[in-house]
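Posting for a labmate who doesn't have an account.
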Amino acid sequence: MLSRLTRPQALAVCALPVVALLATAAFAPLPFSLAQPGTTANVLGENQGTPVISVSGAATRKTSGQLRMTTIVVTGPETKVSLGDVFDNWFRTDRAVMPRDAVYPSGDTVKEIEEHNLAQMQESQDAATQAALKYLGLNADKVKVSLELADVGGPSAGLLFSLGIIDKLDGDGSGGDLTGGRTIAGTGTIDASGKVGAVGGVALKTQAARRDGATVFLVPKAECADAESELPKGLRLVPVTTLDSAVDSLVALEKGKGPVPSC
């Protein structure tokens, strides 16, 4: 049949299956999730009318400045992402295309994913409290800390929770604020020993931080390169590996003395 067609006609006929295949691929769901900068919350203040950090068994201090934990917003586990969606978001600096399995555990239901994220948040809060009280040399049997942050899951606020507890109870250790009156933002998991871990999505979190007024961003040292990739103007990166190093860096910033690491 093709031998009876002119060359342009033959090419057009051959191209039809390719066009159809591309059209199908453009609308077929792909195993990706789309992410963008999310909300931030000051752990020294209130969230939805409730104090984020409440302490009993020890005196707390009035703080100034802010310690803002950061988030990203990701399309839901059942959201269908097409090739067109991927192309639309791939080259935007305020968007990221991520493998779905890197965001959501493969095979889990929506309910199971929500329960997993809430469990991670609770574990993160417990570890953050233990790390902060250990840093301060306080007895966890006598000092009780309650952490409340609605509509946020996962472990990435751990570092900021620990710093918030320390600032509420001891500040910089000599009467000043750990923040130095600044708006400090950051991200990072933390374990009970005070070790800070990587979290992912830091390039988007730096944008959320700067949008909400932060001038300093605490980032797990292993993620410096990612944080620098889309770093907003006016935001200073401070890499951290442990709770001790984060506190030391903030005190050095506040007092204007001593070395402050950079990426």
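Reply:
Got it, the structure tokens are right above this. Residues 33-73+106-255 form a domain with the Ribosomal Protein S5; domain 2 fold (CATH 3.30.230).
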